[in-house]
Design goal:
The structure is a single chain. The protein is built from 16 helices and 14 strands. It has about 400 residues and is an alpha+beta fold. A 5-stranded mixed β-sheet has the order 1-2-10-7-3. The chain has a 3-stranded antiparallel β-sheet with strand order 4-14-11. Strand 8 and strand 9 form a beta hairpin. The protein is globular.
Amino acid sequence: MHIDLLDPEPFRRDDFWDTFAWLRANAPVYRHPEPGGDGFWVLSKHRDIVNVYADSDTFSSARGMRLGSEPAAVAAVTQRMLIVSDAPHHTRLKRALYQAFGPQQMPRLEALVVDVVADLVAEAAEAGELDFIDLAKQLPNRVVCAMMGIPRADWAWIGALTTDAFDSPDEAVRSNAHSEIFLYFIELLAERRARPGTDLVSQIAHDTLVDEGDGTERPLSDEEIVFNCNGVLSGANETTRYSAAGAVHMFARLPEQWELLRRLGPEGVAPAVEEILRWTTPGVHALRTALRDTEIAGTPVAAGDRVTLWNVSANRDEDVFTDPHAFRVDRRPNRHVAFGHGRHLCLGARLARFELGALLTEMLGALDGFELTGPALFNSSNFTWGITSLPVRLLRSRALAPAERAAL
């Protein structure tokens, strides 16, 4: 078996699954060569990946969280951005930022999501045929931009920049997009410092304090706010977009699963969301660096070695999931790692789940199903991956009465 997880083409073709099946069966801790580099470890089994995620004392996030990261860029944000920080900095920063995403904030965010979803599905149903990614990318983008108080005129531009920053195959394009986003948030933060509102940026800038661990508290620095606004923006956009499009792709290919979900009713939405997340796994891999000599499943790993955790493989692990290559909306249990695991569990996981659930609920009330009108196209990234084009026809045989919609 030829293994090259640095080659973007298998991801573009959506045919990398056999590679991970072979790795799980034959080399679950695999030393991957790297042109011009020292290589890196590839973990493909659920148990090993979960164990490394959980052991943040041995495996660091502060030296980069993805393959291909520029060392200078990582150094600029380390210990100030959640995804490239370690305890105790990570713990204190996450606790502070959680104030903006905790249970007390969810009623307001949920109401916003429900309104956005209703408008999007109504627009799509009226059109009848569309590239579903156009809807899928607008959902999280509208929600997160509204949360942050970004002017509506900038929403589409911000969404396009976010995609370029994380998905473009061109390093220069990615770098320029990140710079544009940082500059935008620097200006937005300055405005919110001077004239605070009720949005997320204002709340973080004025009401959020970091516990220093010695009995004192301090406000978040401008850099911490800007870096983590960028992280929230990217995380919110990428996961929901790719998962929503991936769900419709499967419902069009397997209409019996859509019918099953309709029969299950409201109780079926939550497990369906988890299966969609497992199946799509937009966050393909995460990177950790060993801080000391250790072992993974009996294989020696040296201090300084890079270890990659392939979430897409863990979520198809035959030892954890019954019939893992089948898409089943009623799958229980579902111990996927689409949002990571342990301390670095995605801060926006709760919101992403609610967005997907709200979208499913609204579509169940408006649509009979989906029909593909063209091929699904995928991006060529081994980091954040999913459908970039999905031409579909939305099937709607009749409009539901208000009482029927209320029952969903």
